[in-house]
Write a structure and sequence with these properties.
CATH architecture: 3-Layer(aba) Sandwich
CATH class: Alpha Beta
CATH topology: Rossmann fold
Number of helices: 6
Strand content: 5-15%
CATH superfamily: Response regulator
Number of strands: 3
Shape: globular
Helix content: 40-55%
Radius of gyration: 15 Å
Structural class: mainly alpha
Low-confidence stretches: none
Strand order of the largest sheet: 1-2-3
Mean pLDDT: 88
Number of domains: 1
Largest sheet: 3 strands, parallel
Distance between the termini: 26 Å
Order of helices and strands: HHEHEHEHH
Length: 140
């Protein structure tokens, strides 16, 4: 997965330098020791949860944009990661062009949400309904 992701991005961002990590601790170590323009982070990774890693990144590098790319559906994690400071959330089922567009958007200082998530957020904000049950759960 990491190799394919790197290839997609290398085709679009010709002069970019890429790094990768096998687990949460390696990711945090690279983020603390090196300077990055953007981080693409998974929620499910060996070691610690991507939610914990996101919290550590935002604590130590609050301005570093983090795009979460996950196998989990948007309705399970998207709102949670956005509330915790992620610059965007997308699923691994997304098209490569969508990933490139999302990275360009967060590099420019914006936030990325899919069209379907934007619609859900708009409905959620405009209605007076109860929160979905998964939003009431803790990170654990």
């Amino acid at each position: 997965m990491r190799h394919g992701l790197k290839q997609i991005l290398a085709d679009e961002f010709k002069r970019a330098v890429f790094g990768e990590a096998r687990n949460a601790q390696e990711a945090l170590s690279r983020i603390w020791k090196e300077t990055w323009d953007v981080v693409v982070l998974d929620i499910t990774m060996p070691g610690r949860s991507g939610l914990e890693v996101l919290r550590e990144i935002k604590k130590s590098r609050p301005k570093l944009p983090v795009l979460v790319l996950s196998m989990h559906p948007e309705n399970q994690f998207a709102v949670r990661v956005l509330k915790r400071g992620a610059a965007g959330y997308m699923t691994k089922e997304s098209a490569p062009e969508e990933l490139v567009g999302a990275i360009k958007k967060v590099l420019a200082g914006g936030r990325y949400v899919s069209t379907s998530l934007a619609e859900k957020l708009a409905t959620y904000l405009s209605s007076d309904t109860q929160k979905p049950a998964q939003e009431l759960l803790s990170d654990r």
